[in-house]
Amino acid sequence: MTPQSLYQDYAPSPTFENIAILLIALFLLSNIKILPGVWHYRLFKALFTQFILHASSPTATSRTHENTPPSLFRPLVTASHVPLAECDYNLHKSNSTFFTDLDINRTQLLARLFKSVLGKRRPRSRRHGTEGKTTEGNTGSGKVGLALGSVMCTFRRQIRPFQRYDICSRVLTWDDKWLYVVSHFVEKGAIHVTPAFGPGEESVVAADAAAAAAADGDKERARVHVPETAIYSSAIARYVFKEGRITVAPSVVLEEAGFLPSSANSEEETEGTRAEVEGDVRVLERSTCTQVEEERRKGEKFARALAMLGDLPEAFGGESIPPLGRFGDLFW
Fold it and tell me: Structure pTM?
């Protein structure tokens, strides 16, 4: 018996059922990103990556290169693609699907920056820094968490089916209550991550400007991310830190995470003084603190624009404007 005869005896015939199963399997595999439960897998994978796999990677850094912003403002990049099922009738990535990608990317960023604070109880001696009032029976002794308050997205260019792209997010600014994060969808290859200072510390730069900026030390060119023509979409979101039901000011969390100097020691610190934050010694130079404040102020105008959207309920006409009708969504 020859191998050819064995194949003819046992190989399945190309029936309609076999072809249909093969096509369905190929469709599901090519669109695995949008299958039920996959978003949750992507989210928990992001948390596992930052809290487990990179648990020992540094977040706040004591070293600041003269041509780069402080580590707090350095972006994090995730790669993704457009499955066919994410496209609308115009055959480009549907607007609604941008937000699920942003969830994963911002989760990676915030977990990377604040893993030393999130999910942990704050020192009792420091709870005076919380903002807001407690409710009866709530002492504010819960673990620190993070909640999304609002998000706004603008669309510049379409992303075609099966096209790959990068999502780049960073801390933009903060105020007394909210931490603001800005995100961009950009062309694949427009940015790249290179080792900047040491293990676990990466620098995100524009691919075209990276070599030239490194060669001549041009500060402005080194700060360029990507050209506007490479940006598909931009978004801004704001988050609130919570300890139980109590709001914690972002500046307090940033201080405890090591990105800002300790307010308790700020009056005693002099030039070159070192501040100890939860056992880790980080050099908090005056120049670095100045950089942080300068970067924070640059994003204030965008934060104010998003904050104004909190008054949108005032634009709801309610019963004063009769509706055109009421219709079902999925079924009649």
Answer: 0.78
CB-based contacts of 39, cutoff 8 Å, min separation 6:
100, 103, 104
Task: Return the closest-CA partner of residue 51 out of 106, 101, 119.
Answer: 119
- Note the pLDDT of residue 232: 96
Burial of 180 per CB tally in 10 Å (0-12, 13-18, 19+): buried
Q: Beta-carbon neighbour count of residue 138 at 10 Å? A: 13
Amino acid at 177: K
Beta bridge partners of 235: 153, 183
Q: Structure tokens of 161?
A: 């089916």
Name the burial class of residue 276, with classes exposed (0-12), middle (13-18) and buried (19+) by CB atoms within 10 angstroms of its CB: exposed
* CA–CA distance, 35 with 100 (Å, rounded to integer): 13
What distance in Å separates the CA atoms of residue 16 and residue 234, rounded to the nearest whole number?
A: 46
Lowest-confidence segment of 51-65, 250-264, 270-284 by average pLDDT: 270-284
What does DSSP assign to residue 264? T
Amino acid at 295: E
DSSP sequence for 172-205? EEE-SSEEEEEEEEEETTSEEEEEEEETTEEEEE
